[in-house]
Amino acid sequence: MINFENLTGEVIEKLQAAGADQACCTAATSATREFNVDGGKFSLMRTLFDNSLSLTGIAKGKKGSVGINRFDNAAVEQAVADCMASANSAEPDAAWQFAPDGQAHTFSQGVLEADVDRLFDRTEELMQQIGAKFPKIMVEQLIVSHVRSHSVYRNTNGALYTKDAGYYNVELMFSGHEGETASSFFGTGAITDNLHCPFMKLGSIEKDLADVEKQIHTKCVNDKFTGVMLLTPGCLGSFLGDIADNFASDGPVLEGTSVWKDKLGQQVADARITISFAPHAKEVVCGQSYTSEGFLAEDFDFIRDGKLESFLTSLYVSNKTGVPRAKNSGGSMIVRPGEQSVEEMVASIDKGILVGRFSGGQPSTNGDFSGVAKNSFLIENGKITDAVSETMISGNLADMLQNVVAISRETVADGSSVLPYAAFEGITVSGK
Predict the structure, then answer these.
(1) Three-class DSSP category at 81
(2) Domain ranges of the chain
(3) Which of 88, 157, 162, 419 has the most CB atoms around its CB within 10 Å?
(4) Ramachandran bin of 273, using left for φ above 0, alpha for ψ from -120 to 50, beta for the remaining angles
């Protein structure tokens, strides 16, 4: 096996010899052992290998980056040449920097060795449980895997990070069927660092299967109304991801288009909302250890008690704008739970929609969104009623955060995030 510490050191030396003032390099390899189930039957067992080498060089403020999937000398020499050619053709920008005062750190996370027999047993168990408990569900594809990775990051400011990580991953794609009628497809999954628990109990897998079985027969919404949108944890994560991208990521902050550009430290949401990016939380499996710029990843609050605490900005954008950089790259979202049960939340809604999946385009710069509510149910007079078909919902992302009705005390932890249900008023719902 190639010694990645030696390899990254050699690459850094080659980049410096070619004119780089600053440089970084990451060498990584991974092995994925997976079972595939198609149409309810085991179809494939395989092991996949992946190698990557990424290089970045900065020469007189000019940055170039290259990625390859080989480690042989000829490929490395060519990658170094291509990286510096890219840098030399770029415009100089003094904001390109790496983390200063780096140190050596070693990280080990998750389960490094796969229990393949137990993994197969858990997969077979899941298929049997789906067949017994949800007979109307057709599993179109199930991929269960163990992923082990080894990587080394090095830069010219002294950072040397070695990481070994391993986890189990469960991914399902399925739909409900009764005769000739079928639901919309739905995907769910989870990651875990052990096989103690049946896969059915991970994340929201069991609840998602139950909901889709109820979505085979749908009803058209014939009117248009403004009501409450209750988001499942998975759908809430998607909406909050759009909010972070639209208002707090590098592009909008650098370009000055973010509606929150002058809101740091100010109220941007209901005081009940706290959103953190916490790769070190106990519920997170194999969270981020360091950033591509060479900083050690730290947990941080994005929004706390409704106030904007941090943008999701890189060191480069921080140098360009003066906005403090984010303490990690934005994964491992955790939303603080509320005080009501989901049942109590539903009971308080006169007219609204429970949304399990949203299909829409990119929100506008100001946060306006519009799209189709998939895998969703009407809420009428405090009860979940019919599954709905092709129902449009629209609103504004910034307004949503100010118009919170309730947040559930129940949460779903899927190994990547910890999210509650959340209800927002002022959403336009329209059918045919």
Answers:
(1) helix
(2) 4-213, 218-236+338-430, 239-335
(3) 419
(4) beta
